[in-house]
Design a protein that fits this description.
By secondary structure, this protein is of the alpha+beta class. It has a domain of 74 residues: Roll (Transcriptional Co-activator pc4, Chain A), CATH 2.30.31. Strands 1-2-3-4 form a 4-stranded antiparallel sheet. The longest helix is centred in the middle third of the chain and has 17 residues.
């Protein structure tokens, strides 16, 4: 909306006092864990927050990435970087996470206050195990079945 410079409440557009102070949202979840994450290159400071939330009388786990604003220092949830887990699913999700850690050879040591490895250093992902088919058991006669050869006529 246009406001005349002669108006008594006029403030120039670039004036910081002209913009209302914006406060970050309140994290209403009951915080269970906060994991600081190392900033990626020149990105903002971020945290991974795990909390117990409630909506319409139902409880669920909330896992969100929050970033600190460079302009006003307020913490904001990152758009599109959140997941909710129903309490009935939580045990299965936890088992899958633990299985992933086991397959990866355990949790890496955190570097620089972050909960993840810094990919700019010597860290390299573990090579996945190659799946080998198990040999078929020979039939009760003791002889192995003939091998298949698609070019054999």
């Amino acid at each position: 909306m246009y406001r005349s410079p002669k108006h008594p409440d006029y403030k120039p557009p670039g004036d910081p006092a002209a913009a209302p102070a914006v406060e970050g949202p309140v994290d209403a979840d009951e915080r269970l864990a906060t994991l600081p994450r190392a900033a990626w290159q020149d990105g903002p400071e971020t945290e991974l927050r795990v909390g117990l939330a409630e909506l319409n009388g139902r409880h669920f786990l909330s896992i969100k990435v929050w970033s600190k604003s460079r302009t006003n220092g307020q913490w904001w949830p990152d758009k599109g970087k959140a997941v909710t887990v129903r309490l009935g699913e939580a045990e299965t999700v936890a088992a899958a996470i633990l299985e992933g850690l086991e397959q990866a050879g355990g949790a890496p040591e955190p570097k620089g206050g972050g909960g993840r490895p810094d990919r700019r250093t010597e860290w390299a992902p573990r090579q996945p195990a190659r799946m080998k088919p198990e040999p078929a058991a020979p039939p009760s006669g003791g002889q192995a079945p003939p091998t298949f050869d698609e070019f054999d006529s």
